[in-house]
Amino acid sequence: FSDLSTSSAAGSSIQTVYAVKDTGADLGVLHDTPANLVAQTLNSTVTPRTIANPLSVNWAAQNGWYVDLPTGERVNVDPRLQLGSLVLVANAPKDDYCSVGGSSYLYTFDYASGGAVLGQTGKFVGWPVGNSLATGLTLIQLSTKNLTAIINLADASISSLQPPSLAGGGGVLRRVGWREIR
């Protein structure tokens, strides 16, 4: 399925970010009431973008949360879940088939609520990255326990931002992968 059309390069469909509890049951259409997901509302008219009135998520009684991205934005770089933050980059391509480019935004959601990461001032969840499409996202934790997002852009530039993460860094650092060396 493609949301692209001959009349708009940017597309007119809305993409959604979901955090869903695996109940083992078919939840149906995730936007519908029977799925029992909490809808968080993104305010994209302000910079940085916010979820001004986040709703609480009761994971014992509800199946998760979702947030709709602005029309035309696409998540085509793998999201990351690190230090209590769901971090992703959304691209908004130019609405012109004859030119390349667009803009990108870095989003950081509290993985448990879909709102802003706890402990920060403001309810910020989205920051502009630049006037180029993002092609890669890497997260690193500095010795200060701060999270840093390194974003590779299509114009060969690199942007780095410090998205918020849960205080304390989510626990003790440990190996999460390994490779056998012969």
Structural descriptors:
single chain, mainly beta, 182 residues, five-stranded antiparallel beta sheet, three-stranded mixed beta sheet
Q: What does this protein look like?
A:
By secondary structure, the protein is mainly beta. It is built from no helices and 11 strands. It has strands spanning 16-20, 38-40, 49-50, 64-68, 80-82, 85-93, 102-110, 124-130, 134-141, 147-153, 158-161. It has a 5-stranded antiparallel β-sheet with strand order 3-8-7-6-5, with no helix packed on it. It is globular. The chain starts with 15 loop residues before the first strand and ends in a 21-residue tail after the last strand.
Task: Give a topology summary.
Layout: E1 16-20, E2 38-40, E3 49-50, E4 64-68, E5 80-82, E6 85-93, E7 102-110, E8 124-130, E9 134-141, E10 147-153, E11 158-161
Parallel strand pairs: 2-4
Antiparallel strand pairs: 1-4, 3-8, 5-6, 6-7, 7-8, 9-10, 10-11
Span from first to last CA?
44 Å
Count of DSSP strands: 11
Number of helices: 0
Read across the widest sheet, the strand sequence of neighbours is 3-8-7-6-5
Tell me the overall shape. globular
Name the poorly predicted regions. Answer: 169-182
How is the main sheet built? 5 strands, antiparallel
Relative helix content: under 10%
Average pLDDT works out at 85
| Element string (H = helix, E = strand) | EEEEEEEEEEE
Structural class: mainly beta
Task: Indicate the proportion of strand residues.
Answer: 25-35%
Please give the radius of gyration in angstroms.
17 Å
In short:
With 182 residues, the protein is an all-beta fold. The chain has no helices and eleven strands.
